[in-house]
Amino acid sequence: MSRIDQLIAELCPNGVVHYELQEVCTFRRGKSITSKEIIPGDVPVIAGGQKPAYYHNVPNRESQTIAVAGSGAYAGFVSFWDCPVFLSDSFSVEPNQELFVTKFVFYFLKNIQDQIYATKKGGGVPHVHGSSIARFVIPAPPLPIQVEIVRILDSFTELEAELEAELEAELEARKKQYEHYRDTLLDLSKPTRFKRMDQLVEELCPNGVPMYPLRELAHYSKSRISCEDIDVSTYVGVENLLQNKRGKVDATSIPSEGNVIKYEAGDVLIGNIRPYLRKIWLANSYGGTNGDVLVIQIKDRQLLSPKFLYYVLSSENFFLFDIQNSKGAKMPRGSKEAVMTYTIPVPPMCIQEEIVSILDRFDKLCNDLSEGLPAEIEARRKQYEYYRDKLLTFRELEA
Q1: Direct distance between the N- and C-terminal alpha carbons of the chain, in angstroms, rounded to an integer
Q2: Which of 205, 285, 294, 370 is deepest in the core (most CB within 10 A)?
Q3: Half-sphere exposure of 142 (CA within 13 A, CB side)
């Protein structure tokens, strides 16, 4: 920050003037527009969210716009637009150009984003108006200092975006690698490139691994459990199974009376609505579910390991099969009958255990990356916010 320190020493060694925003900025409300009034174009419509609500064909702000969302869950969200936009349920903050660089004011407002959120008013739909933030005090360093601060923060923002993209690409690459090895390990018709695995297959299955339709190895649960015996952690509706094979979360509501389908620890639960969402979970306890979730129970666990079956059914091959056999346009539903015809390999138990051991390690690696990615991104953001706060803090010039 030596360049900033030099400029401060030269241009404002005794501090800078501070103003209330209402003294140096104009707040202009947007013009409400509904989806029916939109004429499709490439002009972002800024309303109550963090992203454009629609795209219109005519702007009402031309460039260098600081927009503040006016209402809704994200009321008070501050965004910067260096292109023509249409402000709808939002307002613009327009600084005095003789005193401020527009983007410097934007960075100042982002630095107090939480304080702006705290000004929300209203019970049902919260609102933030220009008057809500008018009394916030902003420092006004000389314009050359503002230009340098904007340059530095633009660089930080760009680096942060690049880092997030790199981390997410790394995670995606690891996931694809994991999927590849899982499909290879579960094929067993050709070498897996895992020496121990290939030796076991050659010794124990010299003529190949037997394949069986699922119906010969498992069935759908026929048991029932009383709603009095389940809670939000043990009831599994299709809505709380997570997409892309990421397990489940606790239910937000559960049936209050009667009986529901029972599942046991080791059962495989698959979302049967919109199978392209790839919802699957290996139960680690008993609980209940409904008809939108398939509960697959193994007939003989001496022959087939629950974890091995879970890995087979969470493979991309299975979900492509399930998708191809689903019916319905708006809300496709998987075919329970077709699922039971899906053929799976059943190697000796020691081979199943070796496959599970390998895939568990890959799964842990992906989970560690998945958990570490948000933490790494959050750490970088906090570092960025720390420097932003330092850059935007100035000693006030004494009267």
Answers
A1: 27
A2: 294
A3: 14
Q: What is the largest CA-CA distance in the chain?
A: 93
Task: Provide the mean pLDDT of the chain.
Answer: 89
CA dihedral for 18, 20, 26, 31, sign (positive or negative): positive
Structural contact between residues 27 and 132, judged by C-beta atoms closer than 8 angstroms: no
Integer angstrom CA distances of residue 366 from 20, 177, 286, 312, 359: 49, 10, 27, 18, 10
Angle between helix 143-187 and 349-391 (nearest 10) = 180
**What pLDDT shows up at residue 361?**
83
- Specify which residues 235 forms β-bridges with: 288
Distance CA 317, CA 382 (A): 41
Q: 219: part of which helix (H) or strand (E)? A: strand 218-220
Amino acid identity for residue 255 in this structure: P
Encoding tokens for residue 206? 């010299």
Instruction: Let me know the angle formed at the C-alpha of 32 by 30 and 38, rounded to the nearest 5 degrees.
Output: 115
Structure tokens given for 294:
């398939």
What would the pLDDT profile of 299-353 be if each residue is shown by its tens digit?
A: 999 999 999 999 999 988 899 999 999 998 778 999 999 999 999 999 999 989 9
Question: Contact 224/286 with Cβ under 8 angstroms?
Answer: no
Q: What are residue 148's phi and psi, to 5 degrees?
A: -70, -40
| d(C-alpha 373, C-alpha 365), whole Å | 12
Phi/psi at 308 (5° precision): -65, -45
What is the phi/psi pair of residue 360, to 5°? -60, -40
